[in-house]
Amino acid sequence: MAGNRTFTMIKPDAVSAGNVGAIIKMIQEAGFSIKAMKMTKMSAERAGQFYEVHKERPFYNDLCEYMSSGAIVPMILEKDNAVEDFRTLIGATNPKEAAEGTIRALFAESIEANAIHGSDSDDNAEIEGKFFFAKTEEF
Ligand code: GTP
Ligand code: MG
């Protein structure tokens, strides 16, 4: 059975463009409740750990630089079928391919600066949530 939690992070481009409020509104209106949230910043090294699965990809260094370029807003979210429903809400990685009305279609600047992250499995949602939050910070 699909789990009911996922992890997300509003990325530096969307934070610096002032889109945090609009994105959180869309997330809540889609039926997700926020179980943990903060505004913070990653070093390039920490961004590299977060995206370690991509370390052999040609865009890895750029990705780490971009993800550490400004503030981010990580969150743990709860809803039935959370991982899949959240990936639907954010849309495709490349905003040019993202469905109309999705968060990336509305707010992403490019395939790299694409506004928001969403976990791709229940296991990764748990790992990524723990990367940012202590159990005592979750509701
Ligand atoms: P996340 O939710 O952030 O994990 O995105 P995703 O699951 O839709 O895509 P993926 O995990 O494949 O890639 C992780 C991140 O790397 C993307 O969200 C982009 O920020 C960046 N990225 C992916 N593909 C490319 C690419 O071809 N070029 C560049 N410059 N960045 C990319
Ligand atoms: Mg991914």
Automatic annotation (TrEMBL):
ATP binds at residues 11, 59, 87, 93, 104, 114. Its EC number is 2.7.4.6. Residues 3-138 form the Nucleoside diphosphate kinase-like domain. The keyword Mitochondrion does not apply. Pfam families: NDK. Its cofactor is Mg(2+). The keyword Magnesium applies. InterPro entries: NDK-like_dom, NDK-like_dom_sf, Nucleoside_diP_kinase. It comes from the Bacteria. Keywords: ATP-binding, Kinase, Magnesium, Metal-binding, Nucleotide metabolism, Nucleotide-binding, Phosphoprotein, Transferase. GO terms for biological process: CTP biosynthetic process; GTP biosynthetic process; UTP biosynthetic process. The active site is at residue 117. One of its GO terms (molecular function) is nucleoside diphosphate kinase activity. CDD domains: NDPk_I (cd04413). NCBIfam families: PRK00668.1, PRK14545.1. Belongs to the NDK family. This is nucleoside-diphosphate kinase.
